[in-house]
Design brief:
homodimer; mainly alpha; three-stranded antiparallel sheet; 10 helices; DNA-binding
DNA sequence: GTTTTCCACATTGCATACAATTTTTAATAT
DNA sequence: ATATTAAAAATTGTATGCAATGTGGAAAAC
């Protein structure tokens, strides 16, 4: 395996984690200088990472005006979650056709990590909740589908970060467990129903206030210099 | 309107067109120097464009080894087209819920351009055939869905460029027209059936090289039965 | 004749410099 | 005070240079 990690790779990964864990909130400006300085690299590498984050829908770049954590509009919520349901239905259908024991184990293992992070009140739990869905997509073996799910989950996370209440009962670990059970039993109908309910529940969390305050990027990013677990 | 087009924007657009019109074939190396030279800009701008094309799935970049037009594997074909059907079904369903006259006009106008390009034997016809589907997605008003469709259509185009015969009967303009009629009549069942058949027909162009393989006539013909109940 | 080694060349990763653009600040006029 | 304008500072867009990595081919060894 080519473990050649370029500098912009690690910046990309760190920024991504920081955004998905809501350390960097929607709207936060991301000047190339500050980012490069925090990570000890030049603007060139920072910019490269930002461009990639933009195509992920996590960052918005406006010409000559710089980058900022993306701020999805509230009216995108319905659209994004509808599309998410569409894609994740496809995931469930494919998984029910062939589900290995290893896959079940991987899913259960992931949920255990979610529980651990939640008990520790770690911001990791927010990200892990989303990555559970990405793991599901990965288990289909389809790189394309995984990419799409990854993007739509990111986008949904941003919407929650902006409009949801501060991760109250974040994620519904219980629903994740029930979904795994249904998949293990190859019960497609049940799995689809659980997923649908789960996603509606998540969507409903997008309700309340919009806290838009300017924050200091450098101080936050210090905690995300290296990434403890791999990105999906 | 902000018509601020940066240099890497135009390089991005040009390269994208060239790839989708099969002027640049899968596997073609894309050295930053050559690209910069061709467009009269520096490597910096060329690289920026390449990074974006990579996230589009049109270009593959390997660290220290440079970029090349992406070469999807043959076994991706089934996966890509399955996903494409999934997404475009969503498009059709959304369009049938509300279809304006302007939309119909835009679609018909696009098809007229397709016909013009096809008569002129222009390579534009290849790209326009794909962009018809992107236009459909755009008309749903969902930026997310449009982005996904755009990407999956690009990927499918690459597969055809690599494994299909040299755009024989490229695109099925007739099917595009019939689809528009069904949409105009808000006949969801018919529209879905036509789209499904259309996409299978496109996919079959990639399979056609495997001469001896098990060509199951029944399974192919089955798709042309117009059975709306089987659609989901 | 085939394989291996090594070196020149090509290409990328990254940093830095400078020009162009935007944002902020200060000064002036109303 | 408020609004307007202009200069200063900050930030991005782009070009270029250098070090690091990868590639291809000639020479040497087998």
């Amino acid at each position: 395996m080519s473990t050649t990690s370029t500098r912009s790779d690690s910046i990309y990964a760190s920024l991504r984690r920081a955004i998905l864990e809501q350390a960097l909130k929607p709207g936060t400006k991301l000047p190339e200088d500050s980012i490069g300085e925090t990570f000890g690299v030049s603007r060139t590498s920072a910019r490269n990472a930002l461009v990639r984050l933009e195509t992920d829908g996590l960052v918005e770049m406006r010409p000559n005006r710089g980058a900022a954590v993306a701020m999805p509009e509230f009216n995108e919520a319905e659209d994004v979650f509808a599309l998410r349901r569409c894609l994740e239905r496809e995931v469930i259908e494919r998984l029910c056709r062939r589900m290995s024991n290893d896959s079940i184990d991987a899913l259960r293992s992931h949920v255990r990590e979610e529980e651990r992070a939640l008990r520790a009140s770690s911001p990791r739990s927010i990200r892990l909740a989303g990555e559970f869905h990405i793991l599901l997509a990965e288990l289909t073996g389809s790189a394309e589908l995984t990419g799409f799910v990854s993007r739509i989950v990111s986008r949904a996370s941003l919407i929650l970060a902006r409009f949801g209440r501060p991760h109250s009962a974040e994620c519904g670990i219980d629903e994740h467990l029930r979904l795994i059970d249904a998949l293990a039993a190859q019960d497609a109908a049940a799995a689809l129903a659980i997923m649908d309910a789960h996603l509606h529940a998540v969507e409903d969390r997008a309700n309340s206030d919009d806290t838009g305050k300017d924050t200091d990027v450098a101080s936050i990013l210090g905690r995300y210099l290296n990434d403890p677990d791999q990105l999906r």
